[in-house]
Amino acid sequence: MGYLLHTLAQMKAPRLSLRTAIILPLTLILFAMSALIFVIQSISYQNTLEDISKKELTTLAQTVRTNLGNYLYPSFIISSTLSQSVIHHFQEPISTSADKTSFLFDTYQSIKNQLPQLDTLNIGVDKTGYYYGFRKESDHSLSLLLKDETTNNDLVVFDGNTRDAKELYRVKDYNMHPRPWYAPVAFSRKQMWSEPYINNDEKKEITLSALTPIVDKGQLYGVIAADIKISTFNQLLTKQKSQHNRSIFIFDANQHLVAQSESSDELSIISEDAPKTETNNPLSIEGGRRAIYASTDPVIKAASKAYLSQSVSDEQLFEFSLDNKKHFGYVIPFNDQYGLNWHIAISIPESEVLSKMSSQQNIMNLTIIGSTIFLCLTGFIFLTRVTSPITQTAKAAQKLAKKEWNTQLPVFGQTFETYTLVKSFNEMATNLQVAFTDLHKQLAFDSLTGLYSREGLIESVKNHKRLNGFVFIIGFDSYRNINDTLGYNTGDQLLKAIAETIKTIAPANSFQARVGSSEFALVTLNMESNDKQDLINLIIRTFDKPIRLGMENILLSPVIGTSNINNNALEQALRQASIALSHAKKNHAKETTYSPEIEEYSLKRTQTILQISEGLKGREFVPFYQPLVDLESGKIIGAEALARWLSPSKGLIPPMKFIPIAEETGLIHQIGYQILLQSCQDTQNEIDAGRWPENFHIHVNVAVDQLASEQFISELKYILKKTKLSPNNLMLEVVESNLIDDNPLLLENIKTIRSMNVGIAIDDFGTGYSSLAYLQTIPFDCLKIDRAFIKDLTEKNGHNSIAAAILSLTRDMNIEVVAEGIETAEQAKVLAELKCGQVQGFYYGRPSPLKEWAINFPLK
């Protein structure tokens, strides 16, 4: 069973073609390798991307740091150089305010082209509080900023480089000492940078000053401030961004913005929400600078949050996302000896880095994809050419399996193995074609008679589009006896003669076939119902005449089963005709036409056979016992064991429902064995229990076929030994009508049985054809007069009856005579007068199971 299930599973499992089985794994391997290359390349690409971005950012950061240093430090060089000259020019006794401004103007005018980033160059005198300065305008002209003895303690901004110019702006009571460009250096007495602050002029620009103290003889004389506007910082960073397309911003140690590349507006770094403070606050007028994470620029804001979320270090590379786009960020410190503690931050979008790598990456990807496709196509073409002969061979094999014998055979392959395979297959296919032709002929035609076989008949008739006729199946009752008596060679010759006879009487356009060992089919097409009976009569008349074979005249007994061909269903019509033939044989009829009732009977018979077989397995066949009475004493001296079928589902089934079928099928042997075994066992048990006397006789019916079998004697000996029943207590009954066959083994077994002291009784005596003759040839111990001779027995006809003749005939034979079927007291009385020894019938008791015997027939 396991092997069968495995085979079915194998049959249902999908099958790949050879080409697919070879190409698919190779293709998968190629694609897997390509995918692996893509993965490795992706990892390498990511690492390369990070390396490139780091190099880009590092290089740019160094460039920005260098440029920023070059941008800032010249201011200190100027202020340092100028500080010595200021002491000389400003402390001259004859130096006037005009001389001082003229000196400062000449100095600024000489350097302004070399220092375009310089915005204001101013000097504050500590003792007097005077202020001298020049501011570069947008047209590169210089404007005077002045506080001296002439400005009434105010800071005046002129629209020109002299005091004669128009006054632009005046700061009342200007005090420089707390200003962020003056106070820190006045306190520290060393060069330094100021914090970013807002000028007190009309422009209110954010400024970063390079501060240098003017010290004379250890005393602070004043402060020189070289101012750089924050807006120029932004312009510097914006220029860097335009060159490198990178976002750049600078922030101090408190993470406040100093400058950024995203806007040239210097006020973009101012926080409007910052609280106002004292006047010495660098940004007290407009509020504090924005924190980097509060920048108005989204790139700076996102980069700042990513930077601050990590452990802050002097130099740091990080990543962040903005609008689902990846960016790289880099921060480096910018410190100098003048107190700057800034950081330069640069960010770059991943797309910018990818743009440099995309062309190379695309070329690499296209190369991988192209190579994979090329290898797949090349492998496909090559393997197709290699496997094509094999796949063609497989397709040809499938067609041959479907009996398409004209299939075109495949061409030879180009490799040695495929060439050998295809060549061998072609040779095998050719041999198969020849063998199939021969086999088809053997299957389609009967080798003995030359008629169609059953398969050949069906195949030939199915080519006709319309079938409207009849099927006749002809059988012969006596054919088996002919084989047994005349031999199989004669039987074969007889079959040939029958076939030739059928050919001669068959109508035109009919088909003849041998469909069984001695059964022939005749199929007529387009035959009317009126012609059917004429053909039946012709067949019967023809085969009722003896057939001459050599010196022998053989008389056959034809039996015919017929059916109609409906809806082109020839196979069904053949089956139905066969059912009709079987029915005719069972009923000893010459011809039977199929009907649903016949099929139903056949079906029930088949079901009964199956049920009998199951009943034998379940030991459902049991003996019922009917008493045998000594007529003179009236005592029960024995019993006949009658087979009964106790079905769990149907209850008690009458013997006539199963005995005939069991005899026809041979199952009667097994039923007889079970009844004989159980009867012997019951009898011995009852004798041992004292309920039956020791000379109690048990009569058991045995079929002639069972009695004539080779193994019956051994079975009988086994039963007697197993049950320990004395042979003297057992009487085997054989129906007299079944003894007409002169079977040597039957007579031999009867003699052996009697030699074992087991009695033989002839049952239903008087119903056979040769009863008197068998009284001389068959040894027996008991004769049972059939009930047919008892039922009409009366006192008036008793002495002239057949029963009286039988009793008279057997009186001197020293055998027991039992009269069956006693139903009345009158019959019993007449038999007593005729000196009949034993009787049996309903008058004395009906058959009953053993458990009811003690109740119905008490012996004591």
UniProtKB/TrEMBL annotation:
The keyword Transmembrane applies. Residues 384-437 form the HAMP domain. It comes from the Bacteria. Its main location: membrane. Residues 467-598 form the GGDEF domain. Residues 605-860 form the EAL domain. Keywords: Cell membrane, Membrane, Transmembrane, Transmembrane helix. One of its GO terms (molecular function) is cyclic-guanylate-specific phosphodiesterase activity. PROSITE patterns: EAL, GGDEF, HAMP. It is a multi-pass membrane protein. InterPro entries: Cyclic-di-GMP_PDE-like (IPR050706), dCache_1 (IPR033479), EAL_dom (IPR001633), EAL_sf (IPR035919), GGDEF_dom (IPR000160), HAMP_dom (IPR003660), Nucleotide_cyclase (IPR029787), Rev_trsase/Diguanyl_cyclase (IPR043128). It is found in: Cell inner membrane; Cell membrane. One of its GO terms (biological process) is signal transduction. The chain crosses the membrane at residues 20-40. One of its GO terms (cellular component) is plasma membrane. PANTHER family: CYCLIC DI-GMP PHOSPHODIESTERASE PDEF, SIGNALING PROTEIN YKOW. This is EAL domain-containing protein. It comes from Vibrio algivorus.
